[in-house]
Design goal:
- There is one protein chain.
- The longest helix has 25 residues.
- It contains twelve helices and 13 strands.
- The protein has a five-stranded mixed sheet, with helices on both faces. The protein has a five-stranded mixed sheet with strand order 11-10-9-12-13, sandwiched between helices. Strands 5-6-7 form a three-stranded antiparallel sheet.
- It is globular.
- A hairpin with a 4-residue loop joins strand 2 and strand 3.
């Protein structure tokens, strides 16, 4: 008899619930806006409704659900299931998410940082299959990471492992959201690429980047830089090379420390493809120690838009 699980993905803009069987096959799915401004009590009541709706959609009874997995932005405590003020979830200050869900559904529930859950999903269902030690890194609004070794998430002493975006490369560099300066995230996240592009375009306006942004410097995004680079725009190519150098530098540090089999890069790296991946690989080869550099593969993550769903259920399948 197949077991069935519920997966919950909690983000700043959307909530998602899925029901899957023990092979990871999605049987039902519901999505709703988070309405983060309404706070955690609104969100938890909405999640209750969504879970019930998803179970019904999958044509199951609640008794058929053996476990629930929740992927949520941190910081959080995986043992107690308490969420501590994620930046994109205002008001979630020491919110007892695990207790609330288990009280409502009487189903064992695991709460996990979204980057860690994503790493586990890539290990079980995506680009990490067949590897023993994987490092997953997302390049989007921030740069997050998850480490999976022998099928288990590495959490560190107090659930803080995997903060790959907050290694400092330039001590006098741009201010990061964490309060430090020169973090990898402050150099290579989507907003950081856009910031560097705006600064560059103010000095050199003869660029396709500005055309793609309809002539408005303030509306430049990382997507405009990628699109312009594909058109061989010199300024965009320079920005991509800088981004690849900083990312490669950061990854080389992690390769030396962790000695992973594979590094899987998500979001912006997937969109950019070899335009970004090839120079990242070259930088890692140049900056990392020879033996760990020889062992590691650097590849795009594979799960794409299904990552959020699979991240939540990977915790309990």
């Amino acid at each position: 008899m197949k077991k069935h699980v519920v997966g919950i993905d909690i983000g700043g803009t959307k909530l998602a619930t899925v029901v899957a069987d023990d092979s990871g096959k999605i049987l039902g799915k519901v999505r709703r806006p988070t309405r983060a401004d309404k706070g955690p009590e609104y969100a938890i009541q909405l999640l209750f409704e969504m879970v019930y709706e998803t179970i019904t959609q999958a044509e199951l009874e609640q008794e058929a659900i053996s476990a629930m997995g929740v992927s949520c932005g941190g910081p959080l405590d995986t043992k107690t299931g308490v969420v501590y003020s994620p930046p994109n979830l205002p008001g979630w200050d020491a919110f007892p998410l695990k207790t609330q869900l288990e009280s409502e559904f009487k189903i064992p529930t695991i709460i996990e940082n979204d980057a860690n859950a994503s790493a586990l999903a890539e290990y079980r269902f995506g680009g990490g299959r067949g590897y023993e030690a994987i490092l997953y890194m997302t390049m989007s609004t921030g740069i997050g990471g998850g480490i999976v070794i022998d099928g288990k998430i590495y959490h560190g002493a107090n659930d803080s492992a995997g903060e790959v975006g907050h290694q400092i490369l330039l001590p006098d560099g741009p201010l990061c959201g964490c309060g430090k300066r020169g973090c990898l995230e402050a150099l290579c996240s989507g907003p950081a690429i856009a910031r560097r592009a705006k600064e560059a375009v103010r000095k050199e306006s003869n660029t396709v980047i500005l055309t793609l942004a309809d002539g408005h410097i303030d509306t430049i995004k990382s997507e405009h830089v990628l699109a312009a680079a594909r058109q061989d725009d010199l300024l965009a190519l320079k920005l991509i090379d800088e981004t690849a150098y900083y990312m490669g530098w950061g990854i080389a540090n992690l390769v030396n420390i962790l000695n992973p089999d594979i590094v899987l890069l998500g979001t912006i790296a997937i969109a950019a493809g070899d335009l970004l991946l090839e120079p990242i690989r070259k930088t890692v080869t140049n900056l990392a120690m020879a033996r760990p550099a020889e062992a590691v593969e650097i590849m795009p993550a594979q799960l794409g838009k299904s990552l959020g769903d699979l991240a939540a259920i990977a915790l309990v399948v």
